[in-house]
From TrEMBL:
Keywords: Detoxification, Flavoprotein, FMN, Monooxygenase, Oxidoreductase. This is Propionate 3-nitronate monooxygenase. Residues 368-378 have a biased composition (Low complexity). Its cofactor is FMN. Belongs to the nitronate monooxygenase family. NMO class I subfamily. It comes from the Bacteria. InterPro entries: Aldolase_TIM (IPR013785), NMO (IPR004136). It holds the Pfam family NMO. Residues 354-378 are annotated as: Disordered. PANTHER family: NITRONATE MONOOXYGENASE-RELATED (PTHR42747:SF3).
Amino acid sequence: MPSALTDLCRYPIVQAPMAGGGSGPELAAAVCGAGGLGFLAAGYKTADGMYQEIKQLRSLTDRPFGVNLFMPQPSLADHSAVEAYREQLAGEATWYETELGDTDEPTDDGYEAKLAILREDPVPVVSFTFGCPSRAVLDAFARVGTYTIVTATTAAEAQAAQWSGADAVCVQGVEAGGHQGTHRDDPHADGTGAGLGLLALLGQVREAVQIPVIAAGGLMRGAQIAAVLAAGATMAQLGTAFLATPESGANPLHKQALTNPLFTHTELTRAFSGRPARGLVNRFMREHGPYAPAAYPAVHYLTSTVRKAAAKAGDAQGLNLWAGQGHRLARELPAARLVEVLAAELDAARAGLGLTGSTESGDGRTGPGDAPAAGGAA
């Protein structure tokens, strides 16, 4: 098992775990084989479904890989808001000739069962989204040799991860596609511009913690990876960049939309899941985003049937088209080739800046995240 972040892969490139089908064994294996760190997304899967994907991935690669878990969410308090949204969506169900989903689903995403499997049959890396695990959970993973990463969207969340015993933190800028990995969903922050851009957030986190930092949010090119490494990150995590690859499990409509000029920009919305998530603005988001309650994962389950029906009908206007702000830079390359191209671009950017040394993580070079940050918290 790895003892340091830079031992995990050849290049400082992490493929983001994209729940909902985007990040499966084929994509993770291709990224790992090319020298990056591939991830499986266990969110929305059963514990057994997660385990079957782990077994499949192990049959495809012998390289280190990661598994991402969703933290349990608070029980829904305002059922009336969800029922009001159900009425709002009645026309969608009629249009797509389906029923709206059942909101009486568990809010823990099978967390404890997944933890048990990952402790019993350890994987190299486990990361967490939507909160920070307890020290007992992180210590248990440390005892079996699993490297742990916690997603954070503020310096305070990063400090909480360090205090709880995480080995590294993944800082997610507001540019990132998909769900914002905030530890606490605060509806009062909606539309206030409270989310920080990646470089500003990275600077704050590097002064707040001493553990290695992975940077995520809108990264699509090797030069951008060079920028976040120069700003103090040890590695860079890319999601949307890998979404368009053949190995991605994303719906073809979703892949095509990334570079379709019909979809001009992204916004944060609660329309599809009840939690802020960045996606391409389409009809569903425009019509329902203003009315969606802060009720995750109830809204996710409520809209799931409509989204599936829209996909079956070939209608991208009814899908959750998660994408980061850099989506127009997506390239339809095989995942392994994309890793190679990103690494070459990173080398070229470093050379242009007059920086020496290889981009390879395991070359003995001390990365920015391997030394304590000036002024970092104990």
